[in-house]
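Treating backbone geometry as a discrete language has practical consequences that deserve illustration. No coordinates are needed to read the tokens, only the vocabulary itself. For completeness, the protein is quoted in full, as a sequence line and a line of structure tokens:
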Amino acid sequence: MHEQREGDTDKRISELSILPQINTVVYLMLENRSLDNVLGWLYADDDPKNIYPPGPDAPPYDGLVKGAHRLPLKPHFWSDVEYHKIKKGVGGGGTTVPNLDPYEEYADVLNQLFGDAENIVSEPPPDGTHAAMQGFLQDFDADDDTWDETLQITRTYTSAELPILYGLAKQYAVSDRWYCSMPTQTNPNRAFSLCGTSLGRLVNGGFIHDAIERYHTKTIWNALATQNVSMGIYFHEVWYDNQCFTQYTFPYMNQVNTPGSTLLEIAQIDDDYCGFYARAQAGTLPAFTYIEPKWGYGVSFDTCVQGNDYHPPTDVRPGEKLLYDIYTALRSNEKAWEHTLLIVTFDEHGGTYDHHSPPWGATNPNDPESRKSPFNFHLFGVRVPTLLISPYVWPSTVFRAPAEKPPYDHTSTLATLLRWKGIDPARAGLYDRVAVAPTFEGVLSSTIVNPGVDLPAPAHSDAVNKDSNRILEGIPAAVKRYIALKAKSQDHMSRLAEDYRRHRGA
């Protein structure tokens, strides 16, 4: 048997390694918005200055064109006309649209992609079937909704409502061909983004959508630990069992730290000593820095728990503030910023409209549970915004995977992180999708090309949904989510909160 020498290993790592100009990768995954919903109008009035990969036939940004995208409406009691067509709205007239949480489970997403005004679809069609993206209104509509509420699923945000997200997307790079990993909701897509698989799960687990569940499989933290990479997770609130969402839901990461060795730091984001902001300003962030937002959720805006993750039906302004604060903190240490990459993405589209059909051809992760699943994992999910922010990114860039590669999805971040540290994605133990995922190092230059931009401070938003936050103060985030999804009014929310405290002795 050939015995691999240490020199051979070093050479192999060197050949695999990418992004030598980057010392720190900061990864922020937000929640439940499609590309059209929050960045559809990014290049409505001009074209990007740079396209990756370049080429004479590279199309411009695939966003929205006023009046060009139409949806058939579901026949309903208020109209004698069987079909209607409606122009997609420009802007939402506020920062809380849709103010009802769209459906996002597997069957609903299939309906949004393949259904239409007359047909409800809940099973995947044959591989290769074109997704017409005509089922959003029909899927969002409910008999007791007002007409205005139903039409909110067609509304979109402009730079007036989202100046920070638009500003960063325009100043740096955004992909218009980045897909969530599967057509469903949060937990399976976050599992793909951290483990390369959902272990065959098609929806959030736990009791009645409370999403309290665990994925017992290797994570990106376990893979990076093999190269002694310093890592950190910075969170806003306890999710369950005295742990943040990411640590609780993906418990294999707890194997990273061994007696006498702490590769992975887990801390509150605003901790004065070891939080994200303190470390960013001091230039002491771990090489791989992961940020968990404050979760927002609820059936309607009136009873939702306000987070800073952009999740409908909450207000988007706290999300803008979080993004502004992260970017500003990173740029506050000029020396560290010169070797930093900030990745911003969304876990899934959350039921919000997107006109672009997701492709087929995705690779099944090929773990035992995925092989047994009724879904073959060949269909990508809906497009989500993904931004690459760094001094090495040319301003006004739109990027896509090279034509000969699969499209970008969340496993592309895993593959890029692995190769950044000289780890072969095919040997990292994160399954077959990661092994073939395209990486995005080509979007970054080898020298600094972007001086950055000072963004205007976002609108004040501290008072957003203050009543709901006050009612649920001190309750673990997972329980808050359960109460918010169950509450029919703020009085009902108060009673549920008191029941919880009484039974837990709080």
Observations:
- The mean pLDDT is 88.
